[in-house]
Each structure stands twice: as structure tokens, then as C-alpha cells.
Amino acid sequence: MSSSTRQTTWLITGASRGIGLELVRQLLENPKNLVIAACRTPEKATALNGLKSGAKGSLHVIRLEVTDFDSVRAVPKAIAPILGESGLDYLVNNAGILIADTPLTIDPEVLLQTLRTNTVAPALLSQVCMPVLDKGKEKKILNISSTLGSIASADDFGAGTTASYSMSKAALNMLTYKQKLERPDIIVITLCPGWVKTDLGGENAPVEQKDSIAGIIKVITSATAGDSGKYLRYNGEAIPW
Ligand code: NDP
Q1: Would you list the domain boundaries of the chain?
Q2: What is the C-alpha to C-alpha distance for residues 131 and 221, in angstroms, rounded to an integer?
Q3: Per residue in 44-72, is it b (16+ CB within 10 Å) or e — as a string?
Q4: Family, per the entry (predicted)?
Q5: What is the ipTM of this complex?
Q6: How far is residue 167's CA from residue 154's CA, in Å, rounded to a whole number?
Q7: d(CA 25, CA 126)
Q8: What is the pLDDT of residues 48-104, one digit of tens each?
Q9: Contact 227/238 with Cβ under 8 angstroms?
Q10: Is residue 5 very low, low, confident or very high in pLDDT (cuts 50, 70, 90)?
Q11: Which of 12, 82, 160, 168 has CA atoms 20 to 30 A from the CA of 76?
Q12: The model's pTM
């Protein structure tokens, strides 16, 4: 297949539920997309596996516990048979955790686990996927962040109960900007999906998954070189750092 006719390839972490699952679902509505959906326990990912029937695009499910760095390093080998000669067009670092704590009640192990999942894993996965991204036609990385990682917005939220989480997302934002500086030829965005109804966002969240994800897909697929390094909302608005 020539590079102009081949499918657009995506790798998405944390695809078993929530934002990752809905992102896979919407991408599979388009026959042009080949989605590699990574999750911790594929045999238990009923909703994800169920997307295979009726999908217009192609779905491949792989096992990935993002805090297991050996398995993160093994991702390029695991996806090589799926990609064949194609590179990877989009890497979406979506898997994330939020464990409530406050600045003065941080359990060091919780902070480390949060950083490991939300910051270190995206850093390592981006690093090891660079060779396949280099072969891709889009060369885009989407880091799923949060407005809770914005220092400029912190007064709006107060001290709150997201200390470790906010720190991990602020660091992810800096990672994004550093990735852009090191590799001006790729397009890397750090993006807040909005406050979305998921297990993490809770049922009182005002944004429906389908609306958040439709916006996310629009933002990342239309992003150009001039957008690289930006911190954006799912509707494309800039978030103050
Ligand atoms: P959910 O809790 O609904 O889903 C989290 C996903 O991440 C699950 O698929 C979970 O897998 C996966 N995951 C967590 N830890 C790991 C791990 N160590 N290895 C592999 N997968 C893992 O959260 P959301 O869908 O709401 O969140 C997705 C992203 O969006 C996160 O990065 C979050 O910070 C961000 N976000 C969400 C907001 C919201 O309002 N919902 C707001 C701002 C940002 P498993 O099923 O195995 O646990």
C-alpha cells in the first residue's frame, strides 16, 4: 500500500474505559483509521473488544501497563507486526490516575505512583516510539493533560484535593514543551479534555464523553506545525500555563 492510501495509524494508552475507550470508538467510525488500543488487561476489556464488531476502521488491542517500563520499552516491537511498513502517525498518551490528596497530606508513594503513570510513562513511551513516529506521515503526539496542571489557573481551583495529580500534569505540560523544542519537526500538543463524565471525572462532570472526544479528534488532526507545544482545551482554546 502506498503511503498516500495506507490507513492513518494511532496508538492510544488507557483504552479500556473513559476517554481512551470513547476515542477508540470514534476513530473506528472512519475506515481510514487503524487503531492500536493499549490496555492493562485485554482479556477483561469487554467494551474495548466489543468495538471490533461494526467498526469501519481496524482495531488491534495490545497489553500495556504503562508503569511497567520494560513493557513500555517493548511497545515498538509489539506494534511492528501491526504497522508493517507503515510508521505511527499519532501517539496518544491518555492513561492517567487521580488519587485525592492535598499539598500537606501527600503520601510520597502516591506522588511517585502518580508521576510514574501520568508523567514518566508518557515521557518514556514518546521516547521509544520516536523511530516509528519518524516513519509516520503525521508525526503527532497528544499528551492528555488537565487544566489542573495549569499554575496560571490554580487560584481558580484553590488548594483542593488534587496535589499529586496537578503536579504530574504540570510536569507533563513541561515535557510537552521540551519535546517540541527538541523536535521541531514533530507536532506535540498537551490537551485538557474538559471535565468529562468518566470514572475519574465523576458523574457530576458537565462534559459528555462524545463531545470531548469529538473536539479532541478535531484539535489533533487539524494541528499544524505552528500549533506544536501548545496547551489547549478540547475545543481548541488555549489554556494559560
Ligand atoms: P478513567 O479513570 O475513566 O480511565 C483511566 C484509563 O487509564 C483506564 O483505561 C485505565 O485502565 C488507564 N490506566 C490507568 N493507569 C494505568 C496504567 N498504569 N497502565 C495502563 N493503563 C492505565 O479516566 P479518564 O478517561 O477520565 O481519563 C483519561 C485521561 O484524561 C487521564 O490522563 C486524565 O488525567 C485525563 N483527564 C480527565 C478528565 C476528566 O474529567 N475525566 C479531566 C482532565 C484530564 P484500567 O481500566 O486498567 O484501570
Answers
A1: 8-233
A2: 20
A3: ebeebbebeeebebbbbbbebbbbeeebb
A4: Belongs to the short-chain dehydrogenases/reductases (SDR) family.
A5: 0.99
A6: 11
A7: 23
A8: 999 999 999 999 999 999 999 999 999 999 999 999 999 999 999 999 999 999 999
A9: no
A10: confident
A11: 168
A12: 0.98
Give alpha helix (H) positions in the chain: 18-27, 46-50, 69-73, 75-83, 108-115, 121-134, 154-157, 163-182, 209-222
Q: Is the CB of 172 under 6 A from ligand 1?
A: no
Give CB contacts under 8 A, 24+ apart, made by 165-171. Answer: 165/97, 165/98, 165/99, 165/114, 165/118, 167/111, 167/114, 167/115, 168/114, 168/115, 168/117, 168/118, 168/119, 169/118, 169/119, 169/145, 171/115, 171/119
Residue indicated by cell numbers 488500543: 37
How far is residue 93's CA from residue 91's CA, in Å, rounded to a whole number? 6
Secondary element (H or E) of residue 144 = strand 140-144
d(CA 175, CA 172): 5
14 lines ligand 1 (CB under 6 A): yes
| Residues whose CB is less than 8 angstroms from the CB of residue 89 and which lie 6 or more positions away in sequence, other chains included | 8, 9, 10, 136, 137, 138, 139, 140
pLDDT, tens digit, 9 for 90 and up, residues 197-224: 999 999 999 999 999 999 999 999 999 9
φ, ψ at 231 (rounded to 5°) = -110, 105
Which of 17, 64, 72, 208 has the most ligand 1 atoms within 8 A of CB, as the residue to mutate? 17
Q: How far apart (Å, rounded) are the C-alpha atoms in residues 231 and 177?
A: 9
* Rg, Å, the chain Cα set: 17
Mention the CATH class of domain 8-233: alpha beta
